[in-house]
Specification:
By secondary structure, the chain is α+β, with helices and mostly antiparallel strands. The chain folds into 4 domains: 100 residues, Rossmann fold; 70 residues, 2-Layer Sandwich (Dna Ligase, domain 1); 242 residues, ATP-grasp fold, B domain (D-amino Acid Aminotransferase, Chain A, domain 1), CATH 3.30.470.20; 40 residues, no CATH class. It is built from 18 helices and 20 strands. Strand 12 and strand 13 form a beta hairpin. Helix 4 packs antiparallel against helix 5, helix 5 crosses helix 6 and helix 12 runs antiparallel to helix 13. It starts with a strand and ends with a helix. The chain binds ligand MV4.
């Protein structure tokens, strides 16, 4: 593999290029008209504009991307996450052009792209599944019968859905008919596939997922779990590895199940097996056939570069380590920095990154795709950065993450950093007892207002310092430096 095209943008495009460059592989960036000035464009050895800003005309334009790859004699394409990364048709088109896709086969993507298909595929491996139906349901009578058997509440899920799309909770028999019809028609219009099935709804649960790596020589292994329960509207906000609550026995058992899920679809590359954890029990939910946003927490606790492993596997190499070579080193936390206003219903906040200064020091990794002075475009995901923290213990990782949030300086757009500080300081986060309802149960926008006014005071103080003629230190940097250490968090905590 001499030349790799990255069919993505932002932080993940940069992340992939870094590993490729270390391996001596040349990189090709693609970009939309909105991303002309984006760092991923300058970071690559070559870059080609593939179309206008809307993803449908650029980052999702499979034919155009493959045409570019062929014209530049690209050997392989890495799709990153989102966009075309789990699109089996794209995977087939890439293969048909004689280019290697850094990812699993189209067949694996198809099996796991259907939740019913996934359940059927894992049948012979005795993977724990939530009580429910193993086939699509369209008759209200049958649904009511199943409801009697497994008990309410029941969750209706779209087989083609993912990441929470197409789900409906049914509390009792009287709600079944309407919800079933709605779910089927929503699934039909959203996914072009009206298949829905039923599961017992586990009301308070955690989302725990296992990272797997599989080569094309029959070697399968897992890289432990990530805890991803802190989310809002199915958008993850904070992830960590390892989970604060799994026992070593559960971890080994879940890992073995995850590997079997990968086996069941003849998986190749890096993938993630999602489990739901409730009352000490866990059940397989679905498999994501891509590199995930939160993959760095696994990289930090295992020391494995997942992108390099993906590339080696795509080159046909055998995995160079086995399960017993892997162990967990310390604790890692990822905080996602979104250009959203947590005080105002998390509405996307677009604008210019007037100040953008990253935290530094031991145990801090920032994966971002923006530079100071840049506009955050409205066309794509509002995630502007991931801050991934590594420390010897969970407690130290939390303290270090709080310190890093304090050190981050972003002005010009609102971000979710203050909101993340709130989560990390919460006793329910600290003791690990949180579930997927944490944000709804514990967060109110008012909690951040004090913080905001405190920031305003700080800006006022800085402006005054700037304008004061007697001040010797009037450079931008010295003023920002002087603001470090007077953050609201420190003030609130009394030091
Ligand atoms: C569930 C569940 C409870 N019971 N399945 C959400 C994402 C997708 N991967 C599966 N998800 C869930 N599946 C059963 N049987 C809870 C979730 C879930 C959720 C459900 C409703 C509202 C918010 C949620 C947040 C995280 C997970």
């Amino acid at each position: 593999m001499n030349k790799l095209l990255i069919a993505n943008r932002g932080e993940i495009a940069l992340r992939i290029m870094r590993s490729a460059h270390e391996m001596g592989i040349k990189t090709v960036a693609i970009y939309s008209e909105a991303d002309r000035q984006s760092p991923h464009v300058f970071f690559a050895d070559e870059a080609v504009c593939v179309g206008p800003a809307p993803s449908s005309q650029s980052y999702l334009n499979a034919a155009k991307i493959i045409e570019v790859a062929c014209s530049l004699s690209v050997d392989a394409i890495h799709p990153g996450y989102g966009f075309l990364s789990e699109n089996a048709e794209f995977a087939r088109m890439v293969a048909a052009s004689g280019i290697t896709l850094v990812g699993p086969s189209p067949e694996s993507m198809e099996i796991m792209g259907s939740k019913l298909g996934a359940k059927a595929a894992v049948k012979k491996y005795n993977i724990p599944l939530v009580p429910g139906t193993d086939h699509a349901i369209s008759s209200v009578d049958e649904a009511l019968k199943v409801g009697k058997e497994i008990g309410f509440p029941i969750l209706i899920k779209a087989s083609a859905g993912g990441g929470g799309k197409g789900m409906r909770i049914v509390e009792d028999e009287s709600e079944f008919e309407e919800n079933l019809h709605r779910a089927i028609s929503e699934a039909e219009s959203a996914f072009g596939d009206g298949s829905v099935f039923l599961e017992k709804y586990l009301r308070t649960s955690k989302h725990i997922e296992i990272q797997v790596l599989c080569d094309n020589h029959g070697n399968y292994l897992h890289l432990f779990e990530r805890e991803c329960s802190i989310q809002r509207r199915h958008q993850k906000v904070i992830e960590e590895a390892p989970s604060a609550i799994l026992t070593p026995e559960q971890r080994a058992e879940m890992g073995a199940h995850a590997v079997n899920v990968a086996r069941a679809c003849n998986y190749s590359g890096a993938g993630t097996v999602e489990f739901i954890y409730s009352d000490g029990e866990y059940y397989f939910l679905e498999m994501n056939t891509r590199l995930q946003v939160e993959h760095p927490v696994t990289e930090l606790i295992t020391g494995v570069d997942l992108v390099k492993e993906q590339i080696r596997i795509a080159r046909g190499e055998k995995l160079s380590f086995s399960q017993s070579d892997l162990s967990i080193h310390g604790h890692a936390i990822e905080v996602r920095v979104y250009a959203e206003d947590p005080a105002n219903h998390f509405l996307p906040d677009i604008g210019t990154l007037h100040t953008y200064i990253k935290p530094q020091g031991p145990g801090i990794r920032i994966d971002d795709g923006f530079r100071e002075g840049m506009q955050v475009p409205i066309y794509y995901d509002p995630m502007i950065a991931k801050m991934i923290i590594h420390a010897p213990t969970r407690e130290e990782a939390i303290d270090r993450t709080l310190r890093a949030i304090d050190e981050y300086r972003i002005h010009g757009i609102k971000t979710t950093l203050d909101f993340c500080r709130f989560v990390l300081m919460h006793p329910v986060f600290k003791d690990g007892s949180f579930n997927t309802h944490f944000v709804n149960q514990h967060f109110k926008p008012e909690f951040l207002e004090e913080q905001a006014s405190d920031d305003e005071l700080k800006i006022a103080a800085l402006m005054a310092a700037y304008l004061l003629p007697s001040s010797k230190q009037t450079t931008h940097e010295s003023l920002l430096q002087s603001s470090v250490g007077v953050s609201a968090w420190r003030v609130n905590r009394g030091f």
